[in-house]
Structures are given as structure tokens and as C-alpha cells.
Amino acid sequence: MTQTLQQIIDANPEAETFRFGDDKALCDQILALVRSGKKTATCEAARHYGEKGDAWPEIGRRDVALEWDGRPAVMIETVAVETRCWSEMDEDFVAAQGEFRDLAHWREAYRAYFERTGGWSEDMKIMCERFRVVEDYAEGNT
Fold first, then answer.
1. Phi-psi region of 38 (alpha: psi -120 to 50; beta: other; left: phi over 0)
2. Which residue in 9, 15, 79, 136 has its CB near the most CB atoms, within 10 A?
3. pLDDT on residue 142
4. Which CATH number is 5-136 given?
């Protein structure tokens, strides 16, 4: 039986919901990488978290990544979280993100993403999260 988002949240009241990316195509691409196991890390500008934004990820907390249309896609559990400056990103973390050829490719893609979603700077703070998939809500994967 397919669970609704409300049923999932009722069973996991601490869970945050979010979408990967900033458009449907990117969301779909990233969810495919997560489901395949190639993506086990993500990052976001630290400015998106806090008093007026999302809750900061916490080790052990389970959150629900949504399909672009708002349906539950996967539940992930945070296994590590840290803050870095843009200049502190490394090849190991980039590889765990599963989307990029190398650090230079990451910098190009994320600079464009950050510029689209609120601004980029050399000294900006970035939330870096490693996670594992707990449950996949796609038909046939539950």
C-alpha cells in the first residue's frame, strides 16, 4: 500500500520535507542518483537554514525528499553534517554527491545554482550533509 505524505509525517513527526534541486528536471535527475545509491551526500547554502528557513539537518533525523509534484519520494537519514566555506569543498565530498565529474565541475554547477537561488560568494557558508536512504516510496519499492 502506498503511503500518503501525511501518513509518513504522522509516523515521523520530526521529519522535514524538501525537494532536491530547483526545477523538475534536476529534481528527477537527483532522485534517480539517490535511488541508485550513487548519491549519498548533498549540500545547500547555509542561509537557507535557521530561524526563517529550514531546520538544520541533525545526525539520526529522518527527512522526506519529495518528487517535484509533492509526492513522497524517499526517506533519508542524516549520517553526518558539517558547515564549510565554498573554498573548503573537496573531491571526496563532491564524489559522494554523485552528480559531478570533479571539483571544477561541482564549482561551475553549484555557483550557477547558488546564483539562481539567492547569491554566491567566495566566502559563503555551505551545509554539507551525508545521508543514507531508509525507504523508497516509488511504486514497487516500498
1. alpha
2. 15
3. 47
4. 3.10.400.10
